[in-house]
Write a structure and sequence with these properties.
Layout (H helix, E strand, L loop, with lengths): L1 H10 L5 H43 L8 H25 L1 H18 L2
Amino acid sequence: MQWLNGFLSFWYRGEMRTVRASRLPWHIFLGLYTYALAVATAETGLMEKLTFTEMRKHSDSSASKRSPETVVANGLGMGLALLGGVVILAAISPKHQATLQRKSVYSVSNSKC
C-alpha cells in the first residue's frame, strides 16, 4: 500500500509539498536502514567465507595462519565497514540536514505561486 502511495504521489504533482516534506525523515530512515542491512549482509558473507577457509586450513596442518585469502577478506571487510560508516555519517550530518531544510522551505514558498 505504501508503495502505491509513493508511486501515485510521484506521478500526481498536485500533492502538497508539505506532505512530501513530512515523509522525508521516514524516507531517509528507511533508506539508511536498508543500506545498513546490506552492509551487514556483505560482512556476514565475508565472515562465512573466512570460516570455511579456516576449516579447510585445519584439515591441512602445513597451511600458514595468514593466507592471502584471509588478508584480502579482512581488508575488504574493514573497507566495507568504514565506507558504510562514512555514508551514514554523511547522510545524517547537520550540514546536510540544514541544506535539506533550506531547500524544502524554498520549495514550499514557491508552491503557492
